[in-house]
Amino acid sequence: MFVGGFVSTFAAGVARGKNGWTASEVELTGVADIDEVVDRLRDAEPDAELSLLFVEADDQYLVIIRLDEGDDLRVFGSDSAFADESRLGALLLADVEAPSLEIDELAAPQGDDDEDERPAADPDADPVGDVELLADLGISSHRLLTLCGLEGMLPADVTAEICQKLGAGDELEELRDA
């Protein structure tokens, strides 16, 4: 699929309702603004208590959008460059700001840890948005930034790990295999 200058974009909506987690692909072709993206996420599972949208672009960028009970929009982007390089990225990340914890802080020495055991953070990545959007679900801001900054981790890998931690890993895997 070609969206906003990227060869490939995948958008997975993962929603938690009364009967557990569901996953569905969310079509983003032709969206005009973030409100239309949110409407499409709501339409995927209208009665969801919690909805997450994982937008993976060109094996390089990840945007996570969270809605609680259809309202309270929160957005996180793995790299602000997505907004500069894509119409879709600009649309998704238009109103977000840099988080308080920077990704390069992950590369800073932490006590007496052996340097080889620390994650290799991408020094060029500039995450933006709400790094706490998954904290109440067991994924701290530090963990989210670490996942996004690990060398060799693709957006699909980050999405899979987050969904596995949330208990929606099987649903996401079935969606990808479909």
Kindly describe this structure.
The model is unreliable at 1-6 and 106-120 (pLDDT under 50). By secondary structure, the chain is of the alpha+beta class. β3 and β4 form a beta hairpin. α5 packs across α6. The radius of gyration is 16 Å and the shape is globular. It has helices at residues 34-44, 81-85, 87-93, 141-149, 155-166, 169-177; strands at 9-17, 20-25, 50-57, 61-68, 71-77, 128-129. 38% of the residues are buried.
List keywords for this structure.
alpha+beta, 178 residues, globular, tRNA_Adeno_NH3ase_assoc_put
Topology (SSEs and partners):
Layout lengths: L8 E9 L2 E6 L8 H11 L5 E8 L3 E8 L2 E7 L3 H5 L1 H7 L34 E2 L11 H9 L5 H12 L2 H9 L1
Antiparallel strand pairs: 1-2, 1-3, 3-4, 4-5, 5-6
Helix pairs in contact: 5-6
